[in-house]
Structure prediction request, 168 residues.
Amino acid sequence: IKLFTQEIESQAAKRFKDEGRLIAKLQHPHIIQVYAFNEIDFLCPFLVMEQFGTGSLRDHWASSEHPNLVEAVNIIAQLLDALSAAHQVGVVHRDIKEANLLYDRQAQRIKLCDFGIARAVERLQDQAQTTREGCIIGTGHYIAPERYLGQNHDPRSDLYSVGVLFYR
Prediction:
């Protein structure tokens, strides 16, 4: 359960609701499943998602469990499959990194999660404005160069991030 437990500004609450609406559009074996999300204004914002794996790739890497080449190729193939499904319905994740990939090392499966800054290529009705002029959202070295120039997001920026992840 992902939950905001404190008073949050209305823009952050809108982005949180957008995350729920975007993930709800996605049904794929390598994308985290959302069972419920709050769209009722007077309730505390929440998402109810499936439980998966034994932590994120970042968690595994912190304990010196970097995947070997065969595992890495398998992880990237699963991620590309998930992104293909997201991109086909017009969702760009915009924050591909090891912390946003849940991992079950025994089954050698991943699930893409945390669509908090994802965008619909065609805006959702009442979609929050996630950035303001001159503001870049994402994780440093994973951001595609054109996004630093303020150019529009599109699926290619996710693919750039996948390349950085694979390199790491």
